[in-house]
């Protein structure tokens, strides 16, 4: 959190983004003091043309200062004639997860 203050965000939803080579998307959180990873709406089957916001409001998930988040993207570039570039073009590749929550005004960085 900004200024090294503790912060808490109640998660309402989340989404993933990858380009044409994305096949699976995972996001998990390891809460401070826990030994078990908790799923944040992972997608075992990912389709570029089927990107949407996942409703996570009823799952009672809060992200707090000190929690560890992990996002994993599985890509499949087998059969391509050249290496794939990480970039903004649809024919490049990228991977990220985005989460929405409350209260507003929280600034955090990873």
The main sheet comes to: 4 strands, antiparallel
Evaluate the radius of gyration.
16 Å
- Percentage of β-strand residues: 35-45%
Oligomer: single chain
Q: What's the total helix number?
A: 0
Q: Got a strand count?
A: 7
Tell me, briefly, the overall form: elongated
**Measured distance between first and last alpha carbons:** 10 Å
The chain-level structural class is: mainly beta
| Estimated helix fraction | under 10%
The poorly predicted ranges are: none
Question: How would you state the average pLDDT, rounded?
Answer: 90
Secondary-structure element string: EEEEEEE
General description of the model:
- There is one protein chain.
- The protein is mainly beta and 110 residues long.
- Helix content is 0%, strand content 40%.
- It contains no helices and 7 strands.
- The strands form 2 sheets. Strands 1, 4, 5 and 7 form a 4-stranded antiparallel sheet that branches.
- Strand 2 and strand 3 form a beta hairpin.
- The termini are close together.
Write the layout of secondary structure elements.
Elements: E1 8-18, E2 22-30, E3 37-39, E4 54-55, E5 62-64, E6 68-75, E7 95-102
Antiparallel strand pairs: 1-4, 1-5, 1-7, 2-3, 2-6
């Amino acid at each position: 959190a900004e200024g090294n203050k503790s912060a808490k965000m109640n998660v309402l939803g989340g989404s993933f983004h990858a380009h044409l080579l994305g096949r699976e998307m995972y996001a998990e959180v390891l809460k401070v003091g826990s030994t078990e990873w908790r799923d944040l709406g992972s997608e075992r089957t990912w389709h570029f043309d089927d990107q949407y916001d996942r409703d996570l409001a009823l799952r009672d998930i809060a992200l707090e200062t000190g929690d560890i988040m992990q996002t994993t993207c599985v890509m499949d570039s087998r059969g391509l004639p050249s290496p794939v570039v990480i970039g903004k073009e649809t024919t490049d590749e990228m991977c990220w997860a985005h989460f929405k929550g409350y209260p507003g005004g929280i600034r955090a960085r990873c």
